[in-house]
Design goal:
The chain has an eight-stranded mixed beta sheet with strand order 3-2-1-4-7-6-8-5, with helices on both faces. It is globular and about 55 Å long. It starts with a helix and ends with a helix. The chain has about 270 residues and is α/β, with parallel strands linked by helices. The longest helix is centred in the C-terminal third of the chain and has 32 residues. Helix content is about 40%, strand content about 20%. The protein is built from eight helices and eight strands, in the order H-E-H-E-H-E-H-E-E-H-E-E-E-H-H-H.
Length: about 270
C-alpha cells in the first residue's frame, strides 16, 4: 500500500503529523502511509519499541524520534516540538486517516491557513467483527490545530487539548478510522492501564464520592455507553463492548478507593 493509493491529492505543505508508538509493528505502516497522504511530514515518537515498529515507520516515510515514556500529555508535547510545521495533526498508532478526511483537510488549506485555529475530527470505531460503527459510538476530538495557539496539556494522565471557553472550533466530517482493539481481552488490557494512570495521576476525589461511585455507578456507566452512545445498535457484540467500557470506567473509581484505603492504613 502506498500513500498515493490512500490519498487523492498532494499533502498539505504546512502540516505535520505526530504519532506516539510502542510496539505497533502490525499497524504503524498503514497509519503512517495514510497520514503522509495529507501531511507533508510525519513524526513518530517512539517510547522504546522492542518489535519492528521503528524500522517499519521509517520505511514508510516517517521520521522517528526516540523518547522514553514521559506520560500521556508530555509525550505528545515531544511530538509537537519535533514537528517542523506549526499546523499539527495528532494521531494515535491505531488511527487511520480516511481519503474523505484527507480531501477535507486539503480543501481547508487550499487558500492558505484556516481561519479557525483548531478543528474537531470524527473518530469511527472499527470493531474486529462486522462493519465500522459509522452512525453510533462516535467520538469527536480536537486533533487538527495550530501549536502557536494551542498545546497539549503537560499532564501525565491527560492528552487531549483543553480549549479556553469561547474558542471557535471547526469540525470536519470525514472519518479517522479507529482500529481501537483486537478483541475484548485487548480492550480490558487497555482499560486497566488507563484506569490506573487516571486514578494515580488525576485528582483524587473525596472518599464519600468514591465510595458512592463504587457502589452505584457501574449501571450508570453501562447506560451511558449502551443507550446514550448507541452501542445497542452494535447487536450482541455492542452489548459486550458496552460492558467492558462500563467496567473500565468503574475500575478508576475502585482504584481510587484502594488509594484512600492505603492512605488510611499508612497513618
Amino acid at each position: 500500500m502506498t500513500a498515493e493509493a490512500i490519498g487523492r491529492g498532494a499533502p498539505v505543505d504546512r502540516l505535520s503529523c505526530y504519532i506516539r508508538t510502542l510496539n505497533e509493528a502490525t499497524r504503524i505502516e498503514r497509519v503512517v502511509l495514510a497520514a503522509k497522504a495529507v501531511a507533508a511530514e510525519v513524526v513518530v515518537v517512539d517510547s522504546g519499541s522492542t518489535d519492528e515498529t521503528v524500522a517499519i515507520a521509517e520505511a514508510a516515510g516517517a521520521r522517528v524520534v526516540h523518547q522514553p515514556w514521559l506520560g500521556n500529555g508530555p509525550q505528545k508535547r515531544v511530538g509537537e516540538e519535533a514537528c517542523s510545521h506549526d499546523w499539527l495533526l495528532d494521531l494515535d498508532a491505531d488511527e487511520v486517516v480516511s481519503p474523505e478526511l484527507a480531501d477535507e483537510v486539503r480543501a481547508l488549506f487550499a487558500n492558505g491557513e484556516p481561519t479557525r485555529s483548531v478543528h474537531r475530527l470524527k473518530l469511527v470505531t472499527v470493531p474486529p467483527f462486522g462493519e465500522p460503527w459509522h452512525d453510533f459510538y462516535l467520538a469527536w476530538r480536537a486533533k487538527l490545530y495550530d501549536r502557536r495557539q494551542h498545546r497539549m496539556p503537560d499532564h501525565r494522565a491527560w492528552d487531549q487539548l483543553q480549549l479556553d471557553a469561547g474558542t471557535v472550533v471547526g469540525r470536519l466530517g470525514g472519518a479517522i478510522d479507529h482500529h481501537a482493539f483486537r478483541d475484548l481481552a485487548h480492550v480490558m488490557e487497555k482499560l486497566n492501564k488507563v484506569s490506573t494512570n487516571r486514578a494515580r495521576d488525576g485528582r483524587l476525589k473525596p472518599f464519600p464520592v468514591v465510595a458512592l461511585r463504587v457502589v452505584a455507578a457501574l449501571p450508570v456507566y453501562f447506560f451511558k455507553h449502551y443507550v446514550l452512545r448507541g452501542l445497542w445498535r452494535g447487536g450482541l457484540y455492542g452489548f459486550a463492548f458496552a460492558g467492558t467500557q462500563a467496567i473500565g470506567r468503574w475500575l478508576r473509581d475502585a482504584k481510587m478507593l484502594e488509594m484512600h484505603l492505603w492512605r488510611r492504613a499508612e497513618r
